[in-house]
Amino acid sequence: MRGLRFSGFSLIMMGLAVLAVVVLAPTAQAWVTQRQQIAALQQAVAAEKSEVDSLTAERERWNDTTFITTQARERLAYVMPGEVSFLVINDLPALDAAAEPASVSTEVQATKSDWMRSLLASTMAAGLAPVAPEGKTK
C-alpha cells in the first residue's frame, strides 16, 4: 500500500479548516455562555413577574373592606359596635367519644396532685377573670 500523499491544495484547505476552528471556537463559547445567561435571566424575570402578580393580588384583597373586617376580627379580636365578644380562657380540646373508659381500680391510691391547691387555683382564676360591663349585655 502506498503512503498517503497530500497535494498543496488539500494542505491549504486543512490549514484553513484548523484556522477557522481556532478563530471561531472562542466566539462560539462566548455565544453559548451568553445564551445560558439569557436563559437564567428569563427565569429570574418570570419568577419576579409571579411575585409581582401575587403581591398585586394581595394588595387587591387589602383594598376590599370585607377582607379587612375579617382580618381585624380574626387577628385582633375586634367586634362590630353592638356585638359582644366572648374570650374563652384555658379552652380544653374536646374529648374523643369513641375512646374506651378507663378501668376502675379496687385499690386505694394517693392522688398525684394536691386537691386543695387545685381548688384554690380554680377559685382564683374564676375570681380574677374580667367581668363584662353591666350595660353592654343583651
Topology:
Layout: H1 8-62, H2 65-76, H3 115-127
What report would you give on this structure?
With 138 residues, this protein is mainly α. The chain has a domain at 7-78. Helix content is 58%, strand content 0%. The chain is built from 3 helices and no strands. It has helices at 8-62, 65-76, 115-127. It is elongated, with a radius of gyration of 41 Å. The chain starts with 7 loop residues before the first helix and ends in an 11-residue tail after the last helix. The relative contact order is 0.04. The model has no long low-confidence stretch (mean pLDDT 86).
- Number of DSSP-assigned strands: 0
The count of helical stretches stands at: 3
Termini Cα gap: 117 Å
Structural class: mainly alpha
Strand content: under 5%
What is the string of helix and strand elements?
HHH
Main sheet makeup: none
Q: Which percent bin holds the helix content?
A: 55-70%
> What do the pLDDT scores average to?
86
Spans of at least 5 consecutive residues whose pLDDT stays below 50 are none
Broad shape: elongated
Q: What is the CA-based Rg, rounded?
A: 41 Å
Task: State the gist of this model.
With 138 residues, the protein is mainly alpha-helical. Helix content is 58%, strand content 0%. It has a domain at 7-78.
List keywords for this structure.
single chain; 138 residues; mainly alpha; 3 helices; 58% helix; elongated
